[in-house]
Specification:
Length: 308
């Protein structure tokens, strides 16, 4: 009997109600974050206000959406993926607070609001980032135990993605690359770490929450890697094509900081082609799911066409 292999093209994802998916999952993650994080009344209130200011500032919640979409692709339940979804958002928000500090990118706006240090001062902003980083591990330690993935697997994966060989390595290379002309390979090294690592970890944690098979885990890892690379190329493009108002953060920062980006090295048109190529590779990684990873496909498509 002929094997039926579903060849879902990117277009098949267009039937999926991504807006609804993003909205409902963002509500789930917001409610859970509110429960996981200390209330503003907990002493000392300043730090809890500062943590909550940035985490509830209106981010797109892409990483939690990736966790949920990956869990669903593997037949898992949203509820079981909640701790992982909250943990990756805490890491992401911490990295943004620190990235915006005067010692790093020195930015005044993020998520359409004044940056954390502008509101609370540098000392509290550093501590709010530190506290969110710590909270992430307290939260991820609450993932359900799975036969293939004991709790420690999730904790270890998140630590790897956010540690000195990945997220922080990317930030170091990014800082050290300022004002220098980098090769595409050097830029790829930065993007793999500062952006792709956490997106890859998000889908892996989603898969783990659903006790995914090793083939599914491998497919999710590849998908996260490519979608993460595409995400950063698009971010570089948006930095030069969009306004600060649309982005909710200062546009044109890469040029101002003399940062190497895809548009600065290969030009805008080629950058767009590279982003589309990376997104195609992300789709191809989902083949083992045979059409059951429609939320992930739809997310990748949305990210390629996004304007903020
Ligand atoms: C460890 C201090 C420290 C920093 C880590 C990742 C990073 C280094 C800094 C964050 C700044 C940056 C340019 C990250 C790359 C990933 C990226 C494009 C983040 C923006 O993500 P969105 O668009 O943001 O998902 P929202 O606000 O919607 O959540």
């Amino acid at each position: 009997m002929a094997r039926v292999v579903s060849r879902r093209s990117p277009a098949s994802a267009s039937n999926f109600d991504l807006d609804g998916f993003l909205k409902t999952r963002a509500q789930v993650v917001d409610k859970a974050l509110d429960r996981f994080l200390p209330p503003v009344t907990a002493r000392p209130p300043t730090i809890h206000k500062a943590m909550r200011y940035s985490i509830f500032a209106g981010g797109k919640r892409i990483r939690p959406a990736m966790v949920f979409a990956a869990a669903e692709a593997c037949g898992g339940r949203t509820e079981d993926a909640i701790p992982a979804a909250c943990a990756v958002e805490c890491i992401h928000t911490y990295s943004l607070i620190h990235d915006d500090l005067p010692a790093m990118d020195n930015d005044d706006f993020r998520r359409g609001k004044p940056t954390n240090h502008k509101v609370f001062g540098e000392g509290i902003a550093i501590l709010a980032g530190d506290a969110l980083l710590t909270s992430a591990f307290e939260i991820v330690a609450q993932v359900p135990h799975r036969t293939r993935y004991p709790v420690a697997s999730a904790v270890r994966d998140l630590a790897d993605a956010s540690g000195s060989l990945q997220l922080i390595a990317g930030q170091v290379a990014d800082l050290e690359g300022e004002g220098k002309s980098l090769t595409v390979a050097q830029l790829r090294y930065i993007h793999e770490r500062k952006t792709s690592a956490l997106l890859r970890c998000s889908v892996r944690l989603g898969g783990m929450s659903a006790n995914c098979t090793s083939a599914q885990f491998e497919a999710l890892s590849q998908f996260g890697y490519f979608v993460g690379l595409a995400f950063q190329v698009i971010d570089d493009i948006l930095d030069v094509t969009q306004t600060s108002e649309t982005l909710g953060k200062t546009a044109g920062k890469d040029v101002q900081a003399q940062k190497a980006t895809y548009p600065s090295i290969v030009g805008l048109e080629k950058s767009r082609r590279i982003a589309a190529q990376l997104t195609r590779k992300a789709y191809e990684s989902l083949r083992p799911f045979r059409g059951r990873a429609v939320a992930l496909e739809s997310l990748a498509k949305y990210l390629l066409g996004r304007d903020r």
